[in-house]
Specification:
By secondary structure, this protein is mainly α. It has one domain (3-79): Orthogonal Bundle (Non-ribosomal Peptide Synthetase Peptidyl Carrier Protein, Chain A). The chain has four helices and no strands.
Length: 82
């Protein structure tokens, strides 16, 4: 899975969690929790759904790396099991 594919997966999951958000209007480099107004439970749900969809488990210690759409997409692409 490359970065574009992982970005598509993450975007789809974010849209499920926050259906009223227009992802084209957010800055993919900024913290998704602020850009999309995700609370901590929503963010945890996103992380769990990413793991389910991609097989990539994101430990809490890596959350700073995956806070943005770009960061999460790159993280997934780098860690997806082959």
């Amino acid at each position: 899975m490359n970065v574009d594919e992982s970005r598509s997966v993450v975007a789809g999951l974010v849209e499920q969690i926050a259906p009223d958000v227009d992802l084209t209007s957010i800055d993919p480099e900024r913290d998704m929790r602020r850009e999309v107004d995700l609370d901590s439970l929503d963010f945890q749900t996103l992380v769990e759904q990413v793991a389910e969809a991609t097989g990539v488990e994101i430990p809490e210690t890596d959350y700073p790396q995956v806070r943005s759409l770009t960061g999460m997409s790159e993280y997934i692409a780098a860690h997806v099991p082959s």
